[in-house]
Specification:
Blueprint lengths: L4 H13 L9 H21 L16 H10 L7 E5 L5 H10 L2 E6 L2 H14 L5 E5 L12 E4 L3 H14 L5 E5 L10 E6 L5 E8 L7
Parallel strand pairs: 1-2, 1-4, 2-3, 4-5
Antiparallel strand pairs: 5-7, 6-7
């Protein structure tokens, strides 16, 4: 059987358009089959991000207005070095460079995202201020960072917590979009709505030299 993304998408569309015949396939079995086909069709989009299967989270771009708020919340300035772990299209470090004159490093395991980030930096005229690294965020040396931004999931934040708290200089800031870090209470929390009215939560921690496993 063919198993290309185009075939899978076509199969899902055809399946959803087909008639629902009572007595031919039980409703619950048909629903289960439909869900399976949808997941099969979407699988390449997720697997492309982390070929090793150890994804820290799917790529979901942070809205531009929330990017601005994250950088404001972290009090980013021209002397800062901003690391974005799971940088996607690079928008956070590019905005930090363009708006505040900060240096930035974006880290991602998807080569397509890294290429996109570099192109976006060129278009924004901030190539000299930002660097994009094709690397696992769990293996990156974040010690040069004064600000780390995250939009991952709670379990990934917990995996990164001991690395961040061990490597970051006291006073460095960590800002996470929507997800906390377990029992490490944030220094500040900001609840807000984005331009579409969706509620968002930002968490800010300041490194204090204490390693938190």
């Amino acid at each position: 059987m063919l198993s290309t993304p185009e075939y899978r998408r076509g199969a899902v569309q055809g399946f959803l358009r087909g008639p629902f015949v009572i007595g031919t396939i039980a409703p619950m079995r048909r629903l289960a089959a439909c869900i399976s086909l949808v997941l099969l069709a979407l699988a390449p989009a997720f697997s492309a991000q982390r070929p090793d299967g150890n994804s820290l989270g799917p790529f979901v771009a942070t809205p531009e207005d929330i990017v601005e708020k994250m950088l404001e919340f972290a009090r980013v300035g021209p002397s800062d070095v901003v690391y974005d772990l799971g940088c996607g299209d690079g928008r956070i470090v590019i905005t930090a460079a363009r708006k505040y004159g900060a240096h930035g490093v974006g880290v991602d395991l998807d080569p397509k995202r890294i290429a996109e980030s570099r192109a976006n930096a060129r278009n924004a005229g901030v190539e000299s201020l930002v660097t994009f690294v094709l690397q696992d965020a769990m293996t990156v040396d974040v010690s040069p960072a004064t600000v780390v931004t995250l939009y991952l999931v709670a379990t990934s934040n917990l995996r990164l917590r001991p690395i961040l708290t061990k490597q970051l200089t006291p006073g460095s800031r960590i800002v996470s979009h929507n997800f906390g870090m377990g029992n490490w209470e944030p220094d500040e929390v900001l609840n807000l709505k984005d331009s579409r009215g969706t509620t968002r939560t930002l968490y800010l921690w300041r490194a204090d030299g204490k390693v938190r496993d």
